[in-house]
Amino acid sequence: MRRVMWLLLFCNELLASGQSASQDRITLCYDHWPPATIHASVREPRHGFMVDMARDIFLQANYAVTLREVPYARGLHDVVAGGCDVMLLMPKLPDRGVRYPRLPAMYSRNGFFVPAHSQWQYRGLASLARLRIGNIIGYDYSSISPAFAAFIAQPAAGASIITKSGTQALPQLLSLLALGRLDLMVEDEQVARYLLRRQGLANQVKQVGAFPVSLALYPGFSSRYPGVGKLVALWDLAMQPSQISGRLIQRMADY
Questions:
Q1: Would you list the DSSP string of 67-92?
Q2: pTM score, two decimals?
Q3: How far apart are CA 126 and CA 203, in angstroms?
Q4: Phi/psi at 17 (5° precision)
Q5: What totals of helices (H) and strands (E) does the chain contain, helices first?
Q6: CA separation for the pair 250, 179 (Å, rounded)
Q7: Which one is predicted more confidently, 245 or 249?
Q8: Are 119 and 61 in contact (CB under 8 A)?
Q9: CA-CA distances (angstroms) from residue 72 to 54, 76, 143, 157?
Q10: Could you read off the pLDDT of 170-223 as tens digits, one per residue?
Q11: b/e string for 105-128 if b means 16 or more Cβ within 10 A?
């Protein structure tokens, strides 16, 4: 009897290991863009409501999901090269070897953030003269304002662009803004407000308007992934408004 029981347990273990080995695997990459995507820490161990949603979608389709925290510019490179199978929250960029679903993950509205004492207001490109403007390497503003994107790429009228990269780029730039060492930062409204509260800087930085165009953000799927078409289809099916609204609202409320 003991030998029979041992054989049954051994067969079950082989079956389980065989299922695990055959399970499709994907690497899900994301930058620190809270509360949607978060590089987890002791202070905030969660990964963000959009990471939670994406992971749920693929886990339910029987994918083994590995989470990978990357700076934004690195993620753009790796999703093209195949180091990331999915890069969360990027605009549709042409000719990058990336497949996009039909339905976005979320929409971003970019606001103008300045030191609390500033009297500055955005009145077109002329109002950017002589400003110190913060920017994160890899950010692309062309979908919300081609003119502003061109200005960031080639500043004129005495303006200077202070760039940062890495996982702490945005918190660092917001800290410089609060100290008055930057004059302007353009960032998603929800993200900037969340980080300013977390950093205790909410009273030292203020928002003074926003671009009128909201930017659709998508997961970018690497064209190098063998089953990329299936991943795109899974996303669009799961993100149908009738399927997603309540789940997404609950995920956002958790943060």
A1: EEE--HHHHHHHHHHTS-SEEEEE--
A2: 0.79
A3: 28
A4: -65, -35
A5: 8, 9
A6: 36
A7: 249
A8: no
A9: 17, 6, 17, 29
A10: 999 999 999 999 999 999 999 999 999 999 999 999 999 999 999 999 999 999
A11: bbebebbbbbbeebeeebeebeeb
